[in-house]
Batch of 2 targets.
Target 1
Amino acid sequence: MEANVRTEEEFVAYIQAGGVVEASDWMPEAYRRAVIRFIEMHANSEYMGALLERDWIARAPTLERRIAITAKVQDEVGHAQHLYCVLEDLGRSRAEVLRDLSAGRARYNSFFHYPTRSWADCGIIAWLSDAASIIAQKALLKTSYGPYRRILPKICWEEAFHVVHGREIILTLMEGTQQQREMVQEALTRWWPPLLYFHGPPTPPEKDADLMRWKLKGRANEEMRQEFLGIYVPRLQKMGLTLPDPQLRFDTETQRWKYTEPDWEWVRQVGRGHGPASQEQLETRRRAMEENRWVAETLQSPPEPEVSLS
């Protein structure tokens, strides 16, 4: 960053001109807090999202599926670890973030507060939620914070493989027995409301003004949701699946999708840890932290002094 950037006005001008901010650069405290909040939410969502599919590794129907879902879970945890490293350069330690997550003080996407009930859930999650993630992440490829900007292409590239993996699961099930097709429909019916509010509530421009000005947000929530609906509603319908929203339709006059407005207050409560599987998932996280504490302590302990044999 240019050495003379020391005021918020100069900082914004630098960003708007295409400048990239590094961890060691001067930045307004509000910008630093916003970057930490944004990346922490992303990291925790990657991490907690892996829990939805982790238990299906042993229950996958074939060895090939087991290998594929194991690789996906590893990818998601890897994304979280990369993002936690980015946070550490901003003064937010990984240990602190994970403590807050286990205690229920940290936030992650409301989508990941729900339980999985069938193998079809793994297909819906990988295909549709990862597709929604890519839409959000691609909007940030030109974000102003350099370390985040550099890790996003790798995350998007791997998420694209997850989408193919999930779509292939759903296609295989839809070409199978009536029971398998019904399993897909049941899973879609349960997951459609969380998918609809995946990108968050519509926000007025003034609420996102600072994030847009700082290039920490690339697009409005509703724009991303409209893109998701435009791509995936026709594909789901072409498969013969029914979307569980009687109001869902494309309005040719406004060129926008109409849908049943979610109860955004309920969504906020879910995101605060009051979802159907929130506490169960956090308990899994707490138990894992406790059972594996010895590993972290061993790695952090000082090496034993060398013993001279002379």
Note: The mean pLDDT is 91.
Target 2
Amino acid sequence: MPEITIQAADGGSFMAYVAKPRQTMAPVMVVIQEIFGVNQVMRDICDDLAADGYIAICPDIFWRQEPGIQLTDKTEAEWKRAFELFGGFDVEKGIDDLIATVKVGREIEGSNGKVGTIGYCLGGKMAFLMAARSDADCNVSYYGVGIDALLNEATGIRNPLLMHVAEEDKFVPKEAQAKFIAGLKGNGNVTIHVYPGMDHAFARVGGEHYNRDAAMQANQRTAEFLKKNLK
């Protein structure tokens, strides 16, 4: 079952890549894409989560603009198209699609009923919003963008949220980081780790700013967080 179709709340449907573990009655992780679509990087993350015992579902949240697009971070033309899609992305409809995906995750064959989300870049922002607006059991945000402008959402966070922040993120200025870190400090459901010297997408294998040590540390923290909250 490499792909499934999910019905959107406002009509239409979208594709989601699915990776399943060998065992049944497993928790589900909704993997939220970067600005490059459900590409090989996202599919590899799903496959790794399946190897760790999770059902991983990565929905195509760009489907309203260009269904099935898969870009890389290797060419200027692909970066340009990725930013066009990012600029045209409807966050509100994206959240609706992710909530629909969580619902499917609770009911999909082999699910134990528990569902978390994990997102990167744009997906990191969406994971933050899912923590505030959805009933997902836990959420993980890797170098989410624009979160400083979303602090009014923080009061809605009632389930655990883990955030990985790149100290030298070229898309999230230090002032923005300081603002949301301070703004979330009083919420006991939120755990934030800052990675000194790291740039955006430090955990993207093969990416320009990939850092093996920092990625391993973040991923280990994520693994422990998911085990605690979903297994």
Note: The mean pLDDT is 97.
